[in-house]
Write a structure and sequence with these properties.
The chain is α+β, with helices and mostly antiparallel strands. Helices cover 38% and strands 19% of the residues. The protein has helices spanning 9-25, 28-38, 61-70, 123-127, 162-197, 203-214, and strands spanning 40-41, 58-59, 75-77, 83-84, 90-92, 95-97, 110-111, 114-115, 130-134, 142-146, 155-156, 219-225, 228-234. Strand 4 and strand 5 (90-92) form a beta hairpin.
């Protein structure tokens, strides 16, 4: 199967628009019922705030505005850039919360196993562990998924009211819609940017630059934010792992 970057950008945009349309069509009541059936309740164990569970915590554009007010050092370009032009510039669709350089690779805001900004936590943190995405075995469809393991983190709460589940479902759909809109805008802006500046995705350069990053060498990356690209030079941190 072809890698995602081998698929022409306009086709990728169409696929994301179709996924967004399926998101709109997914009944809110159905998702609320699925959440209510699982009765997942967070126990504030902090596991989801580390790379043991999440590779990174993606920030929507409005989350970036919030984190800048709380701590300007708390965010960084999201990992795994998708494109690289022939000049060696990488491109990624947004920012993520910075992870600490500790053994667990924990979130910047995790202290003593607890979130120190819990009441101001970000969109992805608020809906965890619920999502609406395509899943294996149901091509062309989206479905509710819960990606936490009850017992490992979180617990079953028989008292969870349906009204709360309905509110969670609404927040999940809002998040997924905002996420898809940001991905679509990223691809549309990238497509225009490449055309205007005579650029193209270069797989060879992409491999070279991602290898440089893994080796701890500096690389340049354009991060999509608020409809524009913001240039950064980044170096992979030394890990305690």
């Amino acid at each position: 199967m072809a890698a995602a970057v081998d698929i022409p950008i306009p086709y990728r945009i169409v696929a994301l628009v179709q996924e967004r349309n399926r998101l709109f069509a997914y009944p809110l009541e159905q998702m609320a019922g699925d959440i209510w059936s699982s009765r997942f309740r967070c126990t504030s164990c902090g596991e989801c705030c580390t790379q043991a569970v999440n590779n990174h915590i993606f920030l929507l554009d409005h989350d970036v505005a919030t984190v800048k007010k709380i701590d300007p050092d708390a965010y960084e370009p999201a990992p795994d850039p998708e494109f690289c032009d022939q000049n060696g510039m990488l491109y990624v669709s947004g920012y993520a919360l910075r992870m600490k350089n500790d053994a667990a690779r924990s979130c910047w805001f995790l202290e003593g196993g607890k979130c120190r900004i819990y009441e101001r936590r970000f969109s992805g943190c608020r809906i965890y562990p619920h999502m609406l995405r395509r899943s294996a075995g149901t091509p062309g469809n989206i479905t509710w998924r819960q990606f936490a393991r009850r017992g490992s983190h979180g617990q079953y709460d028989p008292t969870l009211p349906f009204e709360e589940c309905f509110e969670i479902a609404r927040e999940v759909k809002e998040y997924e819609n905002a996420y898809l809109n940001q991905q679509i805008a990223f691809l549309e802006t990238l497509h225009e940017y490449f055309a205007v500046h005579g650029l193209r995705h270069d797989p060879g350069r992409y491999y070279d630059r991602t290898q440089r990053y893994r080796q701890g060498k500096p690389v340049d990356i354009n991060v999509f934010h608020a409809g524009e690209f913001e240039e950064h030079r980044i170096v992979k941190p030394d890990l305690f792992l």
